[in-house]
């Protein structure tokens, strides 16, 4: 193998927008950096957003019975997908990119992003618009530039808010927690991410405690001075008010992020057991798969418990009960009866229990039948014995 081939083999492949995220960050905030995990997850989020916008563009083009998609369809797709203010700003950035691209379109030897004055590559945006070769709709030269400018605006907004969160926590490098806080604290970004079910694994939750859980302020009662105060009295042990320790733990756990709560070994053992039962044969699983799966499951459980807690507070209770969890699950699954979930989950269990009960009843009936047969045989033997004795008595007479 030649040296050039070795260099090509060692060269790291670009992952869509991952190489351009650092450039946008330097443009937004010079003093901040970003971790590799944060860059990968932000790249995945941008790929999901690009796929969502591109599918809307393709649908609009087909509805208009056009064979070529233009920047007009990209603009309409942004108005449909993004919230109002965010869509307006993204459209402005896309129009500026298209305008500068049209001015320098005749210059040769320069890339499209240089002509448009943007950092994101229109070639990558064009791949999404063409659905990676599976779409038969043609694309104009301005549509990918328009989409690339809009995606660069979204990336800069996310990184700008994340850099503010990192500076507040006295950090230089942006991590997953900063990305999550930057998205959740921005109203438009939060609406967009929640609506499309986009989140960062390990980002934690937004610190929030409901007002009804906070302790009510009471007026301090003045203590009357007594003559016995000078006497030595045994000091009582300090005792916190009800709920004080719980609120402290809530604040501590809400600040935690990028950590796993469940024990790793039992979780991995359970996943391997499920995979083996599904496939019938054991399968090799990477450690990264366990980590991602555990993050996702814990995040789903956290959101379920948070919504169930809101339901309990709405019902006038502080304590969380199973009916609150069933109620939230019924709303999320679209069922009319909250108790139907328990019926569906426990149906197989109830069937097994019924089978066991019926088997036990059959066994009991068999035992009773055997005992009755034994009793009948014993009764017959006793009758035969009495007849023999009577015959003997008659013979003696």
Describe this structure in words.
With 397 residues, the chain is mostly helical. The protein has helices at 3-10, 18-28, 36-63, 71-81, 84-103, 112-116, 122-129, 142-168, 176-185, 187-195, 244-255, 264-279, 287-314, 322-333, 340-345, 347-396, and strands at residues 33-34, 68-69, 138-139, 173-174. The model has no long low-confidence stretch (mean pLDDT 81).
Layout of helices and strands, plus pairs?
Blueprint: H1 3-10, H2 18-28, E1 33-34, H3 36-63, E2 68-69, H4 71-81, H5 84-103, H6 112-116, H7 122-129, E3 138-139, H8 142-168, E4 173-174, H9 176-185, H10 187-195, H11 244-255, H12 264-279, H13 287-314, H14 322-333, H15 340-345, H16 347-396
Parallel strand pairs: 1-4, 2-3
Helix pairs in contact: 2-8, 3-4, 4-5, 4-8, 5-8, 7-8, 8-9, 13-14
Instruction: Tell me the β content.
Output: under 5%
CATH architecture of the largest domain: Orthogonal Bundle
- Order of SSEs, N→C? HHEHEHHHHEHEHHHHHHHH
By DSSP, the count of extended strands is 4
Global shape = globular
SS summary, helix count:
16
Can you tag this structure with a few keywords?
397 residues, mainly alpha, Histone, subunit A, two-stranded parallel sheet, 16 helices
């Amino acid at each position: 193998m030649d040296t050039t081939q070795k260099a090509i083999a060692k060269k790291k492949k670009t992952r869509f927008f991952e190489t351009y995220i650092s450039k946008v960050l330097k443009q937004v905030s010079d003093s901040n950096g970003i971790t590799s995990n944060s860059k990968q997850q932000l790249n995945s989020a941008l790929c999901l957003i690009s796929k969502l916008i591109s599918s809307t563009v393709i649908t609009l083009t087909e509805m208009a019975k056009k064979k070529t998609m233009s920047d007009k369809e990209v603009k309409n797709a942004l108005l449909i997908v993004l919230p109002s203010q965010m869509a307006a700003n993204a459209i402005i950035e896309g129009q500026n990119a298209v305008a500068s691209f049209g001015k320098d379109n005749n210059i040769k030897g320069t890339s499209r992003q240089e002509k448009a004055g943007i950092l994101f590559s229109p070639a990558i945006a064009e791949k999404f618009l063409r659905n990676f070769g599976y779409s038969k709709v043609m694309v104009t030269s301005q549509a990918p530039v328009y989409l690339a400018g809009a995606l660069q605006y979204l990336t800069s907004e996310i990184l700008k808010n994340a850099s503010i969160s990192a500076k507040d926590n006295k950090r230089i490098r942006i991590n997953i927690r900063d990305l999550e806080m930057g998205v959740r604290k921005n109203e438009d970004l939060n609406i967009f991410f929640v609506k499309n079910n986009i989140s960062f694994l390990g980002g934690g939750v937004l610190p929030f405690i409901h007002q009804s859980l906070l302790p009510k302020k009471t007026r301090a009662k003045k203590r009357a001075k007594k003559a016995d105060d000078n006497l030595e009295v045994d000091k009582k042990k300090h005792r916190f008010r009800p709920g004080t320790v719980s609120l402290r733990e809530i604040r501590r756990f809400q600040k935690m992020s990028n950590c796993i709560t469940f024990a790793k070994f039992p979780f991995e053992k359970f996943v391997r057991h499920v995979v083996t039962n599904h496939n019938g044969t054991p399968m090799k699983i990477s450690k990264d798969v366990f980590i991602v799966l555990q993050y996702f499951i814990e995040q789903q459980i956290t959101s379920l418990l948070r919504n169930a807690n809101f339901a309990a507070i709405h019902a006038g209770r502080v304590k969380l009960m199973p009916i609150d969890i069933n109620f939230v699950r019924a709303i999320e699954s679209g069922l009319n009866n909250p108790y139907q979930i328990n019926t569906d989950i426990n149906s197989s269990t109830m069937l097994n229990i019924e089978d066991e009960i019926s088997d036990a009843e059959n066994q009991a009936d068999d035992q009773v039948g055997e005992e009755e047969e034994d009793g009948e045989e014993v009764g017959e033997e006793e009758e035969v014995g009495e007849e023999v004795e009577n015959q003997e008595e008659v013979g003696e007479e």
